[in-house]
């Protein structure tokens, strides 16, 4: 573990990367290729996001604390992977953590992340043979080894995190917290591929996602590495930023559907 950590010089950048010409770069290149849109995901009914009560429900959350926002609407912004897995066997390999510190991860700073909600892969998602091959990289969770790949003792390779806050100014802080967490998540993938000399396969590719929201606004980011030799820099770029209460909540399910598409990928 120490060898892998010591031989890398890495930095984290919370901005979108810019080329020498000053134009904004996407994770892959300066001209993103046109992609097919993901299929529209079904949404639940009989919730606070129903047409007749949605706006009133959001108004009730004004000046309320984070716990109330999480209780009332967070799962309609970012659905629970484990709850969806009860009906979709393709999600059974996913596991979530709620307000739990990533104490099994080698820290990027002196503070371990503790997101409101995060999703990764459970240990049973891998065969014993798959776990044996990168075992020096993963470490042994029983005695409490720190590793790049583990967030908690039961979650490997986290790829999505969500944080709830109150107020527009607080969203900026939440964005930075999510950037820190996803730097660790992206680093895990980079270090795994670097260990088998295949890091070019993940260079400038979006490897993780984060969501910040309050009672009316959502910010969705993608996170990717830029690998230059032995050095790695970590970046984020905004996928969507919007007020989900505007136009009578026309896009209130956008983040929900996006998250389900991430789970399906």
Automatic annotation (TrEMBL):
Region Disordered: start-end pairs: 1-44
Biased composition (Basic residues): 1-19
InterPro entries, sorted: DUF7924
Top-level lineage group: Eukaryota
Domain DUF7924: 54-265
Composition bias type Basic and acidic residues, residue spans: 28-38
PANTHER family in the cross-refs: PTHR42470:SF2, VAST DOMAIN-CONTAINING PROTEIN
Stated name of the protein: DUF7924 domain-containing protein
């Amino acid at each position: 573990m120490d060898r892998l950590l010591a031989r890398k010089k890495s930095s984290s950048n919370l901005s979108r990367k810019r080329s020498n010409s000053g134009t904004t770069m996407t994770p892959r290149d300066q001209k993103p290729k046109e992609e097919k849109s993901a299929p529209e995901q079904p949404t639940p009914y009989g919730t606070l996001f129903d047409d007749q009560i949605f706006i009133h429900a959001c108004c009730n959350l004004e000046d309320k604390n984070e716990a109330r926002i999480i209780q009332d609407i967070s799962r309609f912004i970012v659905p629970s992977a484990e709850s969806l897995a009860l009906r979709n066997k393709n999600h059974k390999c996913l596991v979530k953590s709620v307000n739990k510190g990533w104490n099994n991860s080698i820290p990027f700073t002196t503070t371990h992340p503790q997101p409101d909600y995060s999703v990764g892969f459970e240990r049973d998602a891998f065969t014993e043979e798959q776990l044996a091959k990168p075992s020096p990289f993963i470490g042994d969770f029983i005695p409490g080894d720190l590793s790049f790949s583990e967030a908690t003792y039961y979650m490997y390779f986290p790829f999505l995190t969500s944080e709830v806050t109150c107020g527009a100014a607080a969203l900026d802080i939440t964005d930075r917290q999510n950037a820190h967490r996803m730097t660790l998540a992206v680093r895990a993938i980079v270090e795994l591929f670097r260990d088998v000399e295949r890091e070019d396969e993940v260079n400038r590719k979006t490897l993780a996602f984060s969501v910040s929201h309050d009672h009316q606004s959502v910010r969705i980011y993608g996170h990717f590495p830029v690998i230059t030799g032995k050095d790695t820099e970590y970046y984020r770029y905004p996928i969507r930023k919007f007020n989900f209460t505007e136009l009578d909540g026309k896009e209130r399910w956008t983040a929900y559907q996006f998250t389900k598409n991430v789970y399906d990928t």
